[in-house]
Amino acid sequence: MSRGIIGKKIGMTSVFHEDKFVPATVIQAGPCFVVDVLTKERNGYEAVKLGYEEARASLVNKPETGVCKKAGVPTLRYLKEFRGMKGTVGQKIDVGIFDGLAALTITAVSKGKGYQGPVKRWHFAGWFKSHGSKGLRRVGAIGCRLTPGRVFKNHKMAGHMGSQTTTVTGVKVISLDVEKNLLVVKGSIPGGDNALLTIRA
Amino acid sequence: MNAIDLVESRYVKPDMPVLLVGDTVKVHINIVEGGKKRIQVFEGLVIAKKGGGSRETFTVRKISSGIGVEKVFPLYSPMIAKLEVVRHGDVRRAKLYYLRDRVGTARNVKEKREAN
């Protein structure tokens, strides 16, 4: 059974795990409410729609306020669908659903880096600094001459980097605290502090 | 208390001895070799403390067969079986890195005497 929860990245620290001092990320995971159950007959696929973080009704748009009202749960700021997950409308989902699991999948929007050159963006090696070189961090050649007479699609060049939806898999769980809705995972995850996370297993 | 402090506070052991820079300590380290566990004692002078809370570390320096050896231990590491303070040193600095350049008796630290 697939299961998921919505959360927020709080920040990073280091903890002792399996006799080692390891980097860790602390996540505020849920609590979430099931606001809708999607079925094969009605929607063409099975899923549940989860909502996270209570907010004043004035901060949430009217259709979503209506969805929460119909489900009989507080007005929630973020709504997301989780395919293949089971639940009943109004059910509270907490971080306990991941109890006993070793690895998770976490999706978030990565930190924006702005317009970056090819060396940072694609790990190009750059060019030499001496002998009159003008191309220290340039792209270099991007193709041939008459044949093919064009630059191939998806050629790696400078451009906007980051702010992309990024998924990391196999994120190891160090500890989870159902009472405080805290999840501690090993290593880093995409996004800055307070980034919205989709956590699945 | 914010969430990160809460997570870190779980790793802080309350029954640790007071450790100060300049102290001579015996660190009993758990060592796992080929599935076997044994304890090794590393005795030396605490020349620095860094960080705070559960992430605090201390550096121990000793002279081993004429060669200076330094080890950095996380204070609350589960690999430290026991921490013994042998004596308190009388020092004026938070970091005793100058001892690295000292030779012979010049590297000795005076013992701290309690003021009456």
Overall number of structural domains of chain A: 2
Which residue ranges of chain A are poorly predicted, with pLDDT under 50 across at least 5 consecutive positions?
A: none
What is the chains' assembly state? Answer: heterodimer
Distance between the termini of chain B: 40 Å
> In CATH terms, what is the fold-level topology of the largest domain in chain A?
Elongation Factor Tu (Ef-tu), domain 3
The CATH architecture of chain B is Roll
* Total DSSP helices of chain B: 1
Number of strands of chain A: 12
Secondary-structure content class of chain A: mainly beta
Please name the CATH topology of chain B: SH3 type barrels
Provide the low-confidence segments of chain B as ranges: none
Shape of chain B: globular
The helix-strand sequence of chain B is HEEEEE
Overall 3D geometry of chain A?
extended
Biggest sheet layout of chain B: 5 strands, antiparallel
- Counted up, domains of chain B total 1
Largest interface: A-B, 15 and 15 residues
